[in-house]
């Protein structure tokens, strides 16, 4: 049975939702599922924009067959070749062998690498600024390299203002019928998953997202719809989401606030993290979020690190090093290129306490444009009254920095 929604005149969402997949890219938990968006334009010629993950290919095919109602599929536009969108290309080519495939040179190369038999079909290789008419609708192609793979492009329909934005402006979360961002309370129910998606999937490529936003800025008044490959379609308050993407890709925090990420074996470092959280609130900074790195998925830690301005690293010393899970979290922040944050450090060790120096060295030497506050809380096994002044001094330094 088909399951489609009309986006705007001539254009339909023909994608599908997936609640079965536990780990997106086999690494990021998606408890609210994910959508794979594909769009079908019914003009004088018919055009499909991107396909879907193999797991939901059957739904895509039923959707297309229903809407085509016997018409041929004339064009297949591939904006992004990663398999969560490109996996069903071969099946489309088998069902509609006359379809002309439009994509970039690198994308065709990837299709061949993935084993698709594209060369027996008509291929139209496009580059920045090329246009294509489907009848009433004329689209222009815009290169979007590294958003999020090198072959990526976005397509802008100059007739109705639809931007097919590929991975940009996407979000984790299944749509479950609600296609448009204005049909949900996005800022309450979706923004955390949108941030977790962008920062973990495309976070490393902030400058490339900035490049794309720069290209879009010239035609902002013409963009009426943003149709991403995951998550809701945007037709209202576009600047709300564009503003979020701008902040995330510039590595600027969304909010002044403090994330306390702690690594604790027996609860003593955790107790220090909680004591600091209370002190911060007592001193007036209440946008404080405490996370145990051992039981919070690193994709969530990354997302919160992009949201907040200040990060407290509280770690026990383990095998004379940083606690492995804390180290893994830091490695993720480095890989995703996070910048412009202020760090504070709490270290613990029953003997040979090393974690503080090592975390400071990591932030100073492995990451870019970070500040580490001089004040540090050092614990020998557990927090006790003798550390009250150190704790208070650290809290004061953080509060002053947040309020600066
Ligand atoms: Fe949703 Fe980069 O693919």
Walk me through the structure.
- The chain has 404 residues and is an alpha/beta fold.
- The protein has two domains: 5-249, Metallo-beta-lactamase, Chain A (4-Layer Sandwich); 255-403, Rossmann fold (3-Layer(aba) Sandwich).
- 34% of the residues lie in helices and 25% in strands.
- The chain is built from twelve helices and 22 strands.
- It has a seven-stranded mixed beta sheet. Strands 17, 18, 19, 20, 21 and 22 form a six-stranded mixed beta sheet that branches.
- Strand 14 and strand 15 form a beta hairpin.
- Helix 6 packs antiparallel against helix 7 (238-250) and helix 8 packs across helix 12.
- The longest helix has 17 residues, at 186-202.
- The N and C termini lie far apart (58 Å).
- The mean pLDDT is 97.
- Bound molecules: MU-OXO-diiron (FEO).
- MU-OXO-diiron binds at residues 80, 82, 84-85, 148-149, 167, 229-230.
Keywords:
alpha/beta, binds MU-OXO-diiron, 404 residues, Metallo-beta-lactamase, Chain A, Rossmann fold, 25% strand, seven-stranded mixed β-sheet, 12 helices, six-stranded mixed β-sheet, 2 domains
Number of domains: 2
Shape: elongated
Terminal residue distance? 58 Å
Question: What structural class results from the helix and strand content?
Answer: alpha/beta
Q: Give helix % range.
A: 25-40%
- Give the name of the CATH architecture of the largest domain: 4-Layer Sandwich
> What Rg do the Cα atoms give?
24 Å
Topology, number of strands = 22
The overall average pLDDT, rounded, is 97
> Biggest sheet, open or closed, and with what strands and sense?
7 strands, mixed
Low-confidence stretches: none
Question: What's the level 1 CATH class of the largest domain?
Answer: Alpha Beta
Number of helical segments with 4 or more residues: 12
Q: What order do the strands of the largest sheet run in, or round the barrel if closed? A: 1-2-7-8-9-10-11
- CATH names the topology of the largest domain as Metallo-beta-lactamase, Chain A
Beta-strand content bin: 25-35%
* Cofactors, ions, other ligands: MU-OXO-diiron
Full CATH superfamily name of the largest domain = Ribonuclease Z/Hydroxyacylglutathione hydrolase-like
């Amino acid at each position: 049975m088909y399951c489609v929604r009309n986006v705007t005149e001539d254009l339909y969402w023909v994608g599908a939702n997936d609640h079965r997949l536990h780990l997106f890219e086999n690494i990021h938990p998606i408890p609210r599922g994910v959508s794979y968006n594909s769009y079908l334009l019914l003009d004088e010629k018919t055009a499909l924009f991107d396909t879907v993950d193999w797991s939901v290919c059957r739904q895509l095919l039923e959707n297309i067959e229903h809407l085509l109602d016997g018409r041929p599929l004339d064009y297949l536009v591939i904006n992004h070749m990663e398999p969560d969108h490109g996996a069903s290309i071969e099946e489309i080519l088998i069902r509609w062998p006359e379809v002309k495939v439009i994509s970039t040179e690198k994308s065709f190369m990837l299709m061949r690498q993935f084993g698709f038999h594209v060369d027996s079909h008509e291929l139209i290789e496009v580059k920045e600024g090329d246009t294509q008419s489907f009848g009433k609708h004329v689209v222009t192609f815009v290169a979007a390299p590294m958003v999020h793979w090198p072959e990526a492009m976005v397509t802008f329909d100059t007739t109705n203002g639809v931007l097919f934005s590929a991975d940009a402006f996407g979000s984790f979360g299944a749509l479950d019928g609600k296609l448009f961002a204005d049909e949900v309370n996005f800022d309450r129910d979706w923004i955390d998953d949108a941030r977790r998606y962008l920062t973990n999937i495309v976070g490393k490529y902030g400058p490339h997202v900035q490049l794309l936003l720069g290209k879009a800025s010239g035609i902002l008044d013409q963009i009426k719809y943003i149709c991403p490959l995951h998550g809701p379609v945007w037709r209202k308050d576009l600047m709300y989401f564009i503003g979020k993407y701008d902040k995330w890709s510039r590595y600027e925090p969304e909010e002044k606030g403090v994330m306390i990420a702690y690594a604790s074996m027996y609860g003593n470092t955790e107790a220090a993290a909680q004591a600091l959280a209370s002190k911060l609130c007592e001193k007036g900074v209440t946008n404080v979020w405490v996370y145990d790195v051992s039981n919070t998925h690193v994709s969530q830690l990354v997302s919160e690190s992009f949201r907040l301005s200040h990060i407290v690293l509280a770690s026990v010393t383990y095998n004379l090093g940083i606690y492995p899970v804390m180290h893994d979290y830091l490695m993720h922040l480095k890989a995703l290129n996070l910048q412009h944050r202020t760090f504070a450090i709490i270290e613990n060790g029953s003997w040979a306490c090393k974690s503080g120096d090592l975390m400071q060295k990591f932030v100073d030497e492995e990451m870019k444009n970070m500040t580490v506050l001089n004040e540090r809380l050092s614990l020998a096994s557990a927090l006790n009254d003798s550390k009250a002044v150190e704790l208070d001094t650290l809290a004061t330094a953080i509060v002053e920095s947040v309020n600066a």
